[in-house]
Amino acid sequence: MDELLSRYTEKQQKIIAEYWDTIRQTRDTGKVSERIIEREVGFWAKYEPGVVIEALEIHIDKYPLIREQYTRGIMRNLAKRRAQEPGGGVSSAPARPRAGKNRFVNFEQRDIDYEVMEKLEALQLSGLLTEEKRNELRNDPRYAKYL
């Protein structure tokens, strides 16, 4: 176990200890077996120490009541994000949110004239939208795309 942790600085090892104290709180017994700790620390070896420590800090700060498996996903996402950064993820600085376009709502605003649509619906519901009236409205560019 000591050899798995030897790649971390003393400060990082304190964060790791704090992480396991947090994970203990997710157990009814308040204990985490050595085997689980070894398995997880072994998994961490896939990632550079900066990614591991940042993931542990995120887990401690934001998800203290969720078990250790969640940290794996945090690490994967951090590593993926760092790999996409300019420089190929060499930077050990924490990842920052990118400025720019919001990717969550990434669609063009539709050009809908609700006033025209409401008028057409009122005509249809009242029975006044006859075929003759439709043909007349098709010549009006505001109505044409809705008929």
Structure in a nutshell:
With 147 residues, the chain is mostly helical. Helix content is 58%, strand content 0%. The termini are far apart.
Strand content: under 5%
Mean pLDDT: 84
- Report the helical percentage: 55-70%
Mind telling me the C-alpha Rg?
A: 29 Å
Task: Provide a descriptive summary of the structure in words.
This protein has about 150 residues and is mainly alpha-helical. The chain folds into two domains: about 1-85, no CATH class; about 115-145. About 60% of the residues lie in helices and about 0% in strands. It has helices spanning about 1-5, 10-25, 35-45, 50-60, 70-85, 115-125, 130-140, 140-145. The chain starts with a helix and ends with a helix.
Question: Topology, please?
Answer:
Elements: H1 2-5, H2 10-24, H3 34-44, H4 49-62, H5 69-84, H6 114-126, H7 131-138, H8 141-144
Task: Name its key features.
mainly alpha, 0% strand
